[in-house]
């Protein structure tokens, strides 16, 4: 690449796109990389502020911005993603399925630490829809040394930096509603319809529902029954606080679940429980939902449900990491997941 006066550039080959910006009208390339400059092009180039122009000259030690961006794409793109054509040194990735978007944070940060390359993504663990933009990447200069891009590849490693976990299909959901007052019909069960509403956007429904009193063994038996009926996910409501007669956590444990966490650094949702049952080779997530899920717009359940639906087995540390961003601002108009909650 070499720089020369635009008025002297007739016959030369552009080595980058030339962008024209007219406020409220257009922001696009008037000439593309590889365009051979003609006499008629000179006034146009001058009108977009290009008194000098960069034209191509052979140099085997450097890569054009579009070619370098293609390397970044290869390092980032994974299954269930589609890539745009390089434009002005930038490539974007878009989701092809609904799911949860994830980034290998450590390697990703190491790549972005390097000079002259940049990758920007959606927040970690964000639920996304097919057709939604996931990431954009580009190199800063018009050309970049080949050995620099070799360094980028070495730092990134062999596995893609990004991942989109698709939602599993045909998940059967079982719900156990606990509470003697509900079991005996003293009050209406207003919690179960809320759960049904949370499941509906994901194409799920409540396949089996059991109501039990506050006897631990009864709740335990209801959970085991739902497991035997082939439920892929079990949700328990009621009895999740620290009151002596709140016994749902004990029932979940007695049913055989490995408790990952009882308590989460999320407000609303501090008394959330997550465990996993193993039955005939299947791993079944069991969630105990605190009462806030019944009345708060967004809670810990909204953070965990999408990830559980992908088949991901969350760890205690991942739940504890929710604390950064785990304070819901209770905005008058909820924009979740396009907000700071969790992220």
TrEMBL record:
Gene Ontology cellular-component terms listed: cytosol
Annotated EC: 2.10.1.1
Keywords from the named record: Magnesium, Metal-binding, Molybdenum, Molybdenum cofactor biosynthesis, Transferase
GO biological process per UniProt: Mo-molybdopterin cofactor biosynthetic process
Top EC class for this record: transferase
Keyword DNA-binding found: no
Listed InterPro entries: MoaB/Mog-like_dom_sf (IPR036425), MoaB/Mog_dom (IPR001453), MoeA-like (IPR038987)
Pathway this chain belongs to: Cofactor biosynthesis; molybdopterin biosynthesis
GO molecular function per UniProt: metal ion binding; molybdopterin molybdotransferase activity
Boundaries of every MoaB/Mog domain copy: 174-310
Cofactor or coenzyme needed: Mg(2+)
Catalytic activity: adenylyl-molybdopterin + molybdate = Mo-molybdopterin + AMP + H(+)
Recorded family membership: Belongs to the MoeA family.
Stated role: Catalyzes the insertion of molybdate into adenylated molybdopterin with the concomitant release of AMP.
Protein name: Molybdopterin molybdenumtransferase
């Amino acid at each position: 690449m070499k720089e020369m006066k635009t008025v002297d550039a007739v016959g030369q080959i552009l080595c980058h796109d030339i962008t024209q910006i007219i406020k409220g009208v257009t922001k696009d390339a008037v000439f593309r990389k590889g365009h051979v400059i003609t006499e008629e092009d000179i006034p146009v180039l001058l009108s977009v502020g290009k008194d000098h122009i960069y034209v191509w000259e052979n140099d085997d030690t450097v890569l054009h911005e579009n070619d370098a961006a293609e390397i970044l794409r290869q390092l980032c793109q994974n299954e269930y993603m589609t890539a745009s054509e390089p434009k002005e040194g930038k490539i974007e990735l878009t989701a092809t399925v609904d799911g949860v978007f994830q980034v290998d944070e450590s390697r990703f940060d190491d790549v972005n630490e390097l000079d002259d390359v940049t990758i920007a993504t959606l927040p970690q663990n964000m639920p996304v829809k097919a057709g939604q933009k996931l990431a954009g990447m580009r190199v800063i200069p018009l050309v970049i040394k080949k050995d620099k891009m070799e360094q980028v590849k070495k730092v990134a490693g062999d596995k893609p930096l990004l991942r989109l976990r698709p939602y599993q299909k045909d998940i059967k959901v079982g719900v156990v509603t606990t509470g003697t007052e509900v079991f005996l019909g003293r009050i209406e069960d207003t919690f179960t319809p809320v759960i049904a509403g949370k499941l509906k956007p994901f194409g799920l429904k409540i396949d089996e529902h059991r109501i039990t009193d506050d006897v631990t063994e009864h709740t335990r038996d209801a959970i085991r029954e739902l497991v035997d009926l082939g439920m892929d996910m079990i949700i328990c409501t009621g009895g999740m606080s620290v009151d002596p007669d709140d016994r749902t956590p004990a029932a979940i444990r007695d049913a055989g679940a490995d408790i990952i966490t009882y308590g989460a650094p999320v407000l609303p949702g501090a008394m959330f429980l997550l465990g996993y049952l193993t039955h005939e080779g299947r791993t079944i997530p069991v969630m105990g939902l605190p009462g806030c899920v019944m009345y708060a717009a967004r809670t810990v359940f909204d953070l965990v449900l999408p990830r559980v639906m992908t088949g991901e087995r969350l760890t205690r540390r991942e739940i504890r990491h929710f604390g950064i961003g785990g304070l819901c601002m209770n905005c008058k108009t909820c924009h979740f997941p396009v907000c700071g909650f969790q992220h």
